[in-house]
Structure formats: C-alpha cells, structure tokens
Design a protein that fits this description.
By secondary structure, the chain is an alpha+beta fold. It has twelve helices and four strands; from the N terminus they run H-H-H-H-E-E-H-H-H-H-H-E-E-H-H-H. The two termini are 49 Å apart.
C-alpha cells in the first residue's frame, strides 16, 4: 500500500510539472518573436569585417590625456550618470523582493490585550489575553505567475544596466565632441587673431602708400574693410568658446569654469579606421539595443502574469502559537491550524481575458519598437560611415587648398613688390588664404567628430573601473 501511494505521488508530481511547463508556454504563445531579417553585412554591398572599430579603447583612438581625464571626471560626476547608477541599484533591490515572493514567508506576532468592561449592576471585569504565534505561508505557483513576475523584474534590472551603459556611451561621445569643437574654436580664434594682425599691418602700409601718393585711396579703404570684418569675428568666437566651456562643465557635473585642453592637431592624420564588424556583433554590442531587448522581455513577462491571473491561486499556510489569560500558565494553551486557500476568478465579464489580450498588444508594441530600433541602428552606422568617408576625403582636399592658398599669397606679394599686380590682388589672395585656413580647421574638426559618431554608432564605449563592472554584473 505504501508503494502504491509513492507511485501515485510521483505520477501527480510529473503531471504537475507538465502542467506548469504547458502553462508557461501557453502564457506567451501569442507573443511573436521579433521579425528581423538581418543583412549579411552592415554596409550595403560591403563585406563582414573580422575587426571592428568599437573593439578599440578610446585611448587607442584619442590619446590626449586631458580628454581622457575629462571623460573620467564626467563618468564619475555627471548627475544623469549617477541617477542611472542609482536606478540600477533600485531595480536590483526590487528584483530581490519579487524573487522572494516565490518562497515561503515566515511571520511572528506577539500580543497583549486587556479588556475592561462592566455590565449594568455587575462588578467591573478585567479580561486579559496574552498570545504569541508564528505562521508560514506559501503560494504554490501553479500557472507561473510568480515566475513570470520574477522574470520581468530581472529583465527590468538588466535593462537598467544596459541603459546605464548607453548613457555612458552617449556621455563619452558628448564630451569628446564638445572637446574637439572647443579645440577647433581655439584654433579658429588663433587664425582670426593672426589674420587680424596681418590686416592691421596692411592698413598701416596702405595708408603710408596712399599718403605718399603711390596709390589711390581705394586700396587703403579696402584694407580697412578687411581689418574691420576680421576683427568683428573675435567677440563671437570668444562667446562661443565660453559657451562650449560651460557645456563641458555641465557634462562633467561642475559649475561653469575654464576647461584645460590641448590644441587641435591639424597635422597628423588618422589611419583608416573604418572597420564596422558584422551585424550580429552590432546587435550584441549596442547597449541601447540590448536595453530594448530586455524591455521586450519585460512586456512578455507582463503577458505571462496576466495569463496566470486568469486561473486559480493556491496558498498553503500553517499557524501555531500559545494563548492564555495569565503569564503563569502561558504555555498551557497551545494551538495550531493549517489552511489550504484556493481562490479562483468566477465571473469577471471577460475582464481578465481582456487584460491578458491587452498585455499581448503591449508586447507587440514593444516588439515593433525593437524592430524599429534595429533599423535605426543600421541606418546610424551607415550614416556614420558615409560621414566619416566624406570628412576624411574633405580633409585631404582642404589641406591641398590651404597649401595652394599659402603659395598664392607668397606669389602675389612677390609680384606686387615687383610691380606686376595691384594691391587689391594681394588683398584678394590673403582673403582666400584666410578662408582656406578656416575651412581646413573645420574639416579637421569634422573628421574628429565623424570618428566619434562612427565609434558611438558601432557601440563603442569607455572601460569602466573593475569594481563598477563587477557591481553591474551582480
């Protein structure tokens, strides 16, 4: 007879397990996987790279120690970054709360009561009651409601980690972008100040020639126009530099202050860094994509919870304790009672079913957003590659233009000094050289920014301290 009971219990356990597995699958059978027709290469007509730019550290791309110090300071002090880290810790704790709901809960209670009453014509009565009890309760997760809730909480926690990494990636790119824009503004201001001084000397020379009767007044007035035009650029550039410093200070989590920086390197060219990797690695590297994937799992878990809420809930509890009206014989009144509580929705007029169907539609919305995010990521990478190729080519062309303009000025001065051309021609050559210098500086800046955009689009980031990395992986 005993063996028969064991066989029945084992059969019941197997049936229960199959019921649970079937329930978990049925809960999300209407949640369709994302429909992603991932191309074989990231670039149309391209090939799959074995290397990827995003696998390099920032220090391998930009070796400027001032920039690296500024980025590290930003990651430590930026308020949005600190808030993201706090959000990770919050969801980690909330996941522990949700996970604990799957296990039995234990409670203890001690009470002391004194009731005083007096009926009409009777003596006053004091009724004391002292009690102490302990209870344990456990919800049997028949249809996976608690497990789906736990999965959802875990997905939310993992999504917060990826969101923190995405913010880190964005901050690194923002700081590097602002830093090179600031360096480019410094370089442009240097060009303007140097050109202004040249025009100032030209005004002086033109005035002497005009007063000496060597030229008409036109070259003198033209030199004054060029000087005034160039000098008027200085206040705007100084304002832009101050605003850019304020922007960097805000990113670094400090009040507006001056920013220590290096000069814009306009001489050393970058090697060809266009290694974009393979599509599957892009999906695994981009933290915003990984966060969207986890949000999709959160929506699926919500659908699983809504599905399980349509079915009965079984809770087993056991309470034991002692109770008496005196402390002397306190332990002479023990009691205990088990409870098997089965609750089930009966007539809700389709409310629970509609709630489940709504959660499936919410999942579909997240799925469409994820599919759209994948398309946007591939577009961002292709845009960044196109911008980088264009910027790299333009730097070479602007370098040639600058060199040609410089030689043009030298030749114009030589011919003017020998009486072959007018002074207006010299002014025109100097103006062309000034514009070429500004354009070349801008093209160098744009190449830096294009590399940053490409690195960000591919999911590159900054290496975090080891303790932070370990904390995120808990």
């Amino acid at each position: 007879m005993r063996h028969h009971i064991i066989r029945i219990s084992a059969a019941a356990a197997v049936c229960g397990a199959l019921l649970l597995l079937q329930g978990c699958g049925a809960a999300v059978k209407q949640c369709i996987d994302p429909q992603l027709d991932i191309p074989e290469t990231i670039l149309p007509g391209g090939y799959a790279d074995s290397l990827c730019l995003a696998d390099l550290e920032w220090s391998e791309i930009f070796s400027d120690p001032l920039l690296k110090d500024l980025i590290e300071k930003t990651l430590e002090n930026n308020k949005d970054m600190l808030a993201a880290a706090s959000r990770v810790r919050e969801l980690e704790r909330l996941h522990r709360v949700t996970r604990a709901d799957q296990f039995p809960s234990f409670r203890a209670r001690a009470n002391m009561e004194q009731e005083n009453y007096q009926y009409t014509g009777a003596d006053p009565v004091k009724d004391n009651e002292f009690g102490m009890k302990a209870a344990v309760s456990w919800e049997i997760d028949l249809f996976g409601r608690l497990r789906w809730a736990n999965r959802g909480a875990m997905a939310q926690y993992l999504a917060s980690i990826e969101s923190q990494r995405a913010m880190q990636m964005t901050l690194v790119a923002a700081v590097a972008t602002a830093y090179f824009e600031l360096a480019a503004l410094d370089n442009e201001l240097d060009i303007v100040l140097r050109t202004r001084d040249t025009w100032k000397e030209n005004v002086k020379q033109a005035r002497l020639r005009f007063e000496g009767g060597l030229t008409t007044e036109i070259p003198y007035q033209q030199a004054q126009v060029e000087y005034a035009t160039t000098a008027a650029l200085v206040p705007d550039l100084q304002r832009d530099i101050a605003l850019k410093e304020h922007e960097i200070a805000l990113l670094a989590g400090t009040f507006p202050t001056s920013v220590e920086r290096s000069k814009l390197n306009t001489h050393d060219r970058f090697p060809d860094l266009m290694h974009v990797g393979v599509p599957s690695e892009l999906l695994q590297r981009r933290p915003d994509l990984l966060a969207a994937e986890q949000e999709l799992k959160v929506a699926m878990a919500a659908a699983g919870v809504a599905w399980a809420d349509r079915f009965p809930k079984l809770e087993i509890s056991f309470t034991a304790g002692v109770e008496n009206n005196t402390f002397v014989n306190f332990f002479t009144g023990p009691y205990w009672y088990p409870i098997l509580n089965l609750t089930s929705p009966l007539f809700a007029f389709g409310k629970n079913k509609a709630r489940y169907q709504a959660s499936v539609e919410a999942y579909n919305q997240e799925r469409y957003q994820y599919e759209q995010k994948v398309l946007e990521v591939f577009r961002e990478v292709n845009d960044a590659v196109a911008s980088y190729s264009s910027a790299r080519e333009k730097v070479a062309l602007m370098s040639n233009l600058q060199e040609a303009s410089r030689k043009y000025v030298e030749l114009a001065l030589f011919q003017y000094q020998n009486g072959y051309i007018n002074y207006i021609d010299v002014l025109d050559a100097q103006r062309s050289y000034f514009n070429a210098e500004i354009d070349y500086s801008t093209s160098v800046r744009d190449e830096f920014l294009a590399i940053i955009d490409l690195y960000k689009a591919l999911g590159g980031g900054w290496s975090v301290p080891e303790e932070e990395s370990e904390a995120s992986g808990k």
